[in-house]
Automatic annotation (TrEMBL):
PANTHER family: NADPH-FE(3+) OXIDOREDUCTASE SUBUNIT ALPHA, RESPIRATORY NITRATE REDUCTASE. It comes from Mycolicibacterium hassiacum (strain DSM 44199 / CIP 105218 / JCM 12690 / 3849) (Mycobacterium hassiacum). SMART domains: Molybdop_Fe4S4. InterPro entries: MoPterin_dinucl-bd_dom (IPR006657), Mopterin_OxRdtase (IPR006656), Mopterin_OxRdtase_4Fe-4S_dom (IPR006963), Prok_molybdopt-oxidoreductase (IPR050123). This is Molybdopterin dinucleotide binding domain protein. CDD domains: MopB_CT_1. Gene3D superfamilies: 2.40.40.20, 3.40.50.740, ADC-like domains, Dimethylsulfoxide Reductase, domain 2. It holds the Pfam family Molybdopterin. The keyword Metal-binding applies. GO terms for cellular component: membrane. Keywords: 4Fe-4S, Iron, Iron-sulfur, Metal-binding, Oxidoreductase.
Length: 739
């Protein structure tokens, strides 16, 4: 018998609604849900491969436990007992501070990943916390924190209403968008062009997104901060800066003008590899457009000046009056965000409240740089990491110098990984606890709803039953109970009930909360019976901006209402939200925060640098996702290959034939050569997440097409100092023919 069921796709940030076909208790196909209020039927090749991904025979059906040096299948009870023993030993001898935690990207795409890791980290009381954020968007958090007082006040381009969109260092036609949740990003770009709007793409490569643009500026890698400083320079110099409605809410305009004064287009043109006239035109067009939005992503973050670039993206949005207005960049308001409180100054945002043990890196959002994980494990001394918990991460491939991390992991006292696969990282674990596949997991976009180009709420209960295995919420809850000393058999519901009690105690005590002064017990009694994560979701929705405030606003959202609308509920276009979200001590936007001004000296000192050899950047492929989707026959091969892309004239000058040897600061590798005039001269690209040739992994298809690990070219010593984010784009490399 064939059936259909709805499920939001967890495979990228676009959050498309899918209609899954189910036969004999498994998923057999996927298509776009035409009635989804947000995605309206859009689907990409990855979503269309949902069934293969869900049924991948290499997904671990149950836990693995290390016995006599080998990972062998075990029962769930045995696995949790092994965690209690192994982790318990480290906790007993060294305390929670000796336990490291690494959180990978899919935590942004699971219910469990949103709800439990913070509780686990608090339970451990550890400062050894690492995540994919410092390989990705951390510069954006720091810039937002310094400018708006809140590191999660994401500025999202109002794609469907803007007249002029500048995309810097992003390739949404391939990535399907990031920090801008928008199903069918391509369709939205085409619609922009159709309504007479213009698209400018700034990228060293003429990407598929650049192909859609009116104008493409092939900037030199890593130099966008200077280019944007020059845009700011022109805005002031030609009296084009116009803050519009923001004028009363901005501090630091004069400092901004001063700091940009020496970054004239003529001064930066050689450094950026972009004509001064092009930069002037960009500034003039941005100022002249009825509305405009500047949007930056990976190419603005994982670079030498990541935080400066992220700041300048929004500085330009402010100076052209485009922040917080329709058609500009706006602040989404997700359904589980806290209900807005009255405007008031906040404490602002700081980093460096503590420092990493070995290199003294400042903490940022209570994390250390992912590149520091290996040294914190392999450097002896007080506070050394003795045990590691990884959840949904593969840092051996995703972070620089995986070989060192690989060796470090092998020396840990204990390691547990929550991951569906035996891969380059999890092969070092003493216990692997595999979550069930997405067809057996619920879905709610706690994080991505706050990045959506249109406010909406959608929930997918787990489409299929668990059949005897714990869901990821239970796995993580049991880890938390073990850390609390409740042993492997504690009641996982206790974790959720504890969070609910604490949250409601705080809310009811807050005079500005929608439930101020109400008895906690009464509110707890209103939550529906069911899994703890659903009770927490219901609580968050009811406390949120559209919530029913536990009955006080009878038309408001509850989980029950959301469940009754399986295709989702549209919550309308983005609306202006200033000044209520500002949490700077001044209560204003800080246009020129001191830590950023201080870092401009480093940029200034770089202006005379020129590349002598080649520069390496990254590249994503439509049918791939970081390191973990190379195991599906339907997705690997064809154009999804790990090749060195290089301009044909560069290849000819170097005398490259089939294979090139690439040498970087961290190592050397050989890769097939792919000639492409998409590349700027002197710039080459390799995709990341490949290098599936290590022993003892369990992804058979991936092992047949291993590719090479680009991150081995990188020694990890170069970081954006303000955010601790690894420089993954703009790596100097030498290239030679093989042999
Ligand atoms: N050179 C270079 N390096 C890069 C990048 C780059 O552009 N260039 N990009 C960086 C970026 S943006 C990111 S986000 C990082 C990603 O870095 P990581 O998050 O460390 O790596 P991923 O490859 O995304 O690994 C995800 C892991 O989660 C597992 N997984 C999948 N689904 C689930 C699930 O439902 N639950 C659990 N528990 N686990 C699951 C997978 O099996 C895999 O092991 O890589 C970074 N590395
Ligand atoms: N198909 C697919 N989709 C994905 C992923 C995937 O691996 N595959 N990964 C997901 C993840 S984790 C993330 S974070 C997002 C990322 O989403 P995006 O940021 O849109 O993805 P990228 O393709 O890495 O785009 C970065 C662009 O920056 C350019 N670039 C590199 N260096 C510079 C520079 O110095 N300056 C400028 N201006 N540009 C530069 C690159 O050429 C590239 O085109 O994608 C997500 N979606
Ligand atoms: S665009 Fe992203 S969310 Fe949509 S179907 Fe593809 S992978 Fe899934
Ligand atoms: Mo990412």
């Amino acid at each position: 018998m064939t059936d259909t069921v709805l499920r939001i796709c967890p495979l990228c940030e676009a959050t498309c609604g899918l209609t899954l076909t189910i036969a004999d208790g498994r998923v057999t196909g996927a298509r776009g849900d035409k009635d989804d209020v947000f995605s309206a039927g859009f689907i990409c090749p990855k979503g269309a491969s949902f069934a293969e991904l869900d049924n991948d025979p290499d997904r671990l059906p149950g836990p693995l436990v290390r016995r006599d040096g080998r990972l062998v299948p075990a029962s769930w009870a045995e696995a949790f007992a092994a965690v209690a023993a192994g982790l318990g030993a480290v906790l007993g001898e060294h305390g929670g501070g000796a336990v490291g935690v690494y959180l990978g990207n899919p935590n942004a795409h699971t219910v469990a990943g949103a709800l439990y890791p913070p509780v686990l980290i608090r339970a451990l009381g550890t400062r050894q916390v690492f995540s994919a954020s410092t390989l990705d968007q951390m510069p954006k958090h720091v810039a937002l924190g310094l400018m708006f007082g809140s590191p999660v006040a994401f500025t999202v381009p109002d794609l469907d209403r803007t007249d002029y969109l500048v995309i810097i260092g992003a390739n949404p036609v391939v990535s399907n968008g990031s920090l801008a949740t928008a199903p069918d990003f391509v369709g939205r770009l085409k619609a922009l062009r159709r309504r007479g709007g213009r698209l400018v793409v700034i990228d060293p490569a003429r990407t598929r997104t650049a192909e859609l643009a009116d104008r493409h500026l092939a900037v030199r890698p890593g130099t966008d901060a200077a280019l944007l400083q020059a845009v700011v320079n022109v805005l002031f110099d030609e009296r084009l800066a116009d803050l519009g409605a923001l004028a009363d809410h901005v501090h630091g305009v004069d400092e901004m003008q001063r700091v940009a004064a020496d970054f004239t287009p003529e001064r930066v043109a050689g450094y950026c590899g972009v004509d001064a006239g092009e930069i002037r035109t960009l500034a003039r067009e941005l100022a002249a457009a009825p509305t405009a939005a500047v949007y930056g992503r990976i190419g603005t973050c994982t670079v030498e000046f990541g935080t400066l670039t992220s700041w300048l993206v929004d500085a330009v949005n402010v100076l052209t009056g485009n922040l917080d207005r329709p058609g500009g960049v706006m602040f989404p308001l997700g359904p589980t965000a806290p209900a807005p409180r009255p405007p008031r100054p906040g404490r602002g945002f700081t980093t460096g409240r503590w420092r990493s043990r070995v290199s003294g890196y400042p903490e940022v959002l209570s994390e250390f740089p992912a590149t520091a994980l290996a040294e914190e494990i392999d450097t002896p001394g007080d506070g050394q990491i003795k045990a590691l918990i990884t959840i949904a991460g593969n840092p051996v491939l995703s972070a620089p110098d995986g070989d060192r991390l690989d060796r470090a992991l092998a020396g840990l006292g204990f390691m547990v990984s929550v991951d569906p696969y035996l891969n380059e990282t999890t092969r070092h674990a003493d216990v692997i606890l595999p979550p069930p596949p997405p067809s057996r997991s619920p879905h709610f976009d706690f994080a991505l709803n706050n990045l959506a180009v249109r406010n909406n709420v959608r929930y997918s209960p787990a489409p299929l039953p668990l059949s005897g295995r714990p869901d990821e919420a239970e796995i993580l809850s049991r880890l938390i109970l073990i850390v609390f000393g409740a042993g492997p058999d504690g009641d996982p519901a206790l974790v959720d009930e504890q969070v609910i009690a604490t949250t409601l105690a705080k809310e009811t005590a807050d005079p500005d909360s929608p439930v101020a002064g109400r008895p906690v017990k009464e509110l707890v009694g209103m939550l529906p019976p069911g899994p703890g994560y659903e009770r927490r979701l219901d609580m968050m929705l009811r406390l949120g901006p559209y919530g029913d405030a536990f009955g006080a606003k009878p038309d408001g959202l509850t989980l029950q209402r959301v469940k009754a609308a399986p295709h989702g509920i549209d919550l309308g276009p983005l609306r202006p939200r200033l000044p209520e979200l500002l949490r700077t001590p001044s209560g204003r936007i800080e246009l020129a925060p001191q830590p950023l001004l201080a870092d401009v000296d480093r940029l200034r000192a770089d202006l005379d640098r020129r590349d002598h050899g080649f520069v390496l950047i990254g590249r994503r492929h439509l049918r791939s996702n970081n390191s973990w989707m190379h195991n599906l026959p339907a997705l690997v091969g064809g154009s999804n290959r790990c090749t060195l892309r290089i301009h044909p004239d560069d290849a000819a000058e170097l005398g490259l034939t089939d294979t090139a040897v690439v040498k970087g600061p961290g190592g050397e590798l050989s890769a097939p050569v792919e000639r492409s005039d998409e590349m700027r001269r002197g710039v080459v690209s390799l995709p990341h997440g490949w290098g599936h040739d290590r022993d003892g992994t369990g992804q058979r298809v991936a092992a047949d097409h291993p590719g090479v690990n680009v991150n081995q070219l990188n020694d990890g010593s170069r970081l954006d100092p303000l955010s601790g984010t690894a420089v993954l784009n703009g790596i100097p490399v030498d290239i030679a023919p093989a042999g």
